[in-house]
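F.,

This is the one I mentioned.
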């Protein structure tokens, strides 16, 4: 049994300076759509769009308003502060989660002010949040049902000079793999969860996966962050059309990277606190 999650919608990257973050990710070869901000919160974002999912760079635009934990996170560091998943429907996930004993919040709506050249539009979302203690390693996690998807995804925004196509994987570093396995089986079903080469691997749907590992394993695989308390999200792996094109773009833009087996690795200081990895598309 699962709670109706069918994919990764977007990882959330907390950034201290929205203008600087935009510059970092443009240098990495991403197309950045116009800025958004949340009507109900004091937070704003740049959403880097792919065909089915996206990256959210989230910063503070009004520190006097509700910030949904962003201010506390940024006091410690920049980087991955959570992940939103795709549900079949937010209401179904809420019902299934509560039936499984999870402390999911009642579905609620959030509205984004999207600042387009032709005028402001208001994309809407229906959200259900999970208790971080019941989703170890995923930090601030939720499901996000898009009510107006046509407002945020245009073909020209999904084409990126670095060849990025989709979120392929998220990496979490945890203390107790056994505990995480039980929790992930509740979220995604036992058939979606397996252990492989020192990691717990979860099929999150849509061809994407979650990877959980201990700090020692993460250090060996070069996906650990220094000085960060467990548990935490450390890395995003993106599927790209051709690694040679990605490496060429990074070289032209003066971005340092390392080649590791079948992927390219950009250090967190060049990606707002996230280890960003590019892997040739396998879908």
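My design for it:
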């Amino acid at each position: 049994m699962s709670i109706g999650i069918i994919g990764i919608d977007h990882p959330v990257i907390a950034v201290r300076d929205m203008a600087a973050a935009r510059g970092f990710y443009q240098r990495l070869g991403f197309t950045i759509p116009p800025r958004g901000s949340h009507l109900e919160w004091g937070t704003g974002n740049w959403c880097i769009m792919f065909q089915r999912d996206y990256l959210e760079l989230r910063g503070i635009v009004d520190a006097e308003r509700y910030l949904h934990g962003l201010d506390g996170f940024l006091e410690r560091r920049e980087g991955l502060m959570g992940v939103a998943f795709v549900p079949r429907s937010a209401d179904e996930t809420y019902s299934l989660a509560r039936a499984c004993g999870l402390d999911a919040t009642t579905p609620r709506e959030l509205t984004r002010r999207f600042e387009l050249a032709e005028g402001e539009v208001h994309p809407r979302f229906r959200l259900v949040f999970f208790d971080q203690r019941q989703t170890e390693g995923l930090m601030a996690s939720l499901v996000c049902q898009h009510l107006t998807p046509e407002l945020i995804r245009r073909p020209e925004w999904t084409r990126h000079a670095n060849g990025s196509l989709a979120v392929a994987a998220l990496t979490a570093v945890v203390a107790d793999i056994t505990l995480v396995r039980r929790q992930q089986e509740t979220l995604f079903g036992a058939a979606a969860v397996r252990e492989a080469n020192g990691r717990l691997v979860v099929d999150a749907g849509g061809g994407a996966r979650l990877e959980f590992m201990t700090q020692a394993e993460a250090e060996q695989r070069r996906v650990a962050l220094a000085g960060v308390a467990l548990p935490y999200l450390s890395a995003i792996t993106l599927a790209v059309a051709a690694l040679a094109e990605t490496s060429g773009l990074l070289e032209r833009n003066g971005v340092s990277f390392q080649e590791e087996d079948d992927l390219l690795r950009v250090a967190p200081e060049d990606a707002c606190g996230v280890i960003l990895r590019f892997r040739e598309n396998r879908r």
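DSSP finds six helices and 17 strands in the chain.

Talk soon.
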